Fold this protein.
Amino acid sequence: MTSPGPPLIMFFMSATVLPPAAVARLLIWHQGALGDLLLAGPALAALSRHYPQARFTVLGHPDRWRLLAPSLPVEEVWDSSAARWAFLFSEAALPQELRQRLAPFPLALIFAPRPQAILLDRLHQAGISAVHWLPSFPETGVEAVEALQARALAALGLHYVPAPFKLETGLSQDEKLPELPGPGPWLAVGPGSGHLLKNWPLAHYYEVSRTLAWEYGLKVVWLAGPAEEAMLPYLAGLAAAQGQVLLSHRPLDRVARVLSRCRLYLGNDSGLTHLAAAVGRPGVLALFGPSDPRVWAPLGPQVRVLAAPCAQAPCVAGRTIDCRDPRCLAGLSVETVLAAAASMLAEK
């Protein structure tokens, strides 16, 4: 846990802080990527405890939110890309339909990098009496996202210590998965991320996965999504050559189930790594280069982080990676990762 950051500027469109009994419906806006949404998991769980009677209506990317819905009191999932929400960012009169849709909510919480004053004000105009902004990540300074959001929620009377968010997969203990032929034990590998400079070299992943499969009898499943599209021809060749499994473009709930059946997961700073940590079953070995693990690393007792041995790393300002000579992750040796993986396997 990092030390508390600088004073947090809260944007309240109303001074109202509602008591838990007054909140039966709670509107939550979070349009972030999968990793950002899962990092908000401890805050969302704290909200569900603080407002025990409240049902959540959530706005964001439906596929990501539906993944979290079984773990939270989610009643409805609304797509934030729908045209109706454009009125919340303009000066045009709010349609009556939109006012009617939003009026039943006494409280709205907006997760976003910066306070979008027009959005908060328009929600207030629509009839929501208390509208609050929560930072989805720190734009400056070094503070874990979970701790930052806990500080923000303290202003609403929620005082808690962030704990790992547990994602429910709905998978029974004896249920078989068609994606995984055989009982394992399985090693899941997520070689991509949302930014090429955050990726450990693919050749290193190949060497580590091959060695772990040979020395520990692990079966290997490679996981790839839209961000790994360019890798797919290489991953297909690697998997075929070693008799391994490649799963690409699978629904997030299916990926979560696959991860829950794995013994170890190895990957970069990515949404998939956060998903593996939230599932809770595999040990998670996360490799960080330009991004700061003090801010972005997932919580979890089975999470271990390896940071690149680079004097300039971490070098991310907010979301921007400006490094012109990206060598940090190339300096993270295969031997170092193998030793960490072996240590985690020995603990099980």
Remarks:
- The longest strand covers residues 25-30.
- The chain has two domains: 20-154, 186-346.
- Residues 202-216 form the longest helix (15 residues).
- The CA atoms of residues 34 and 64 lie 6 Å apart.
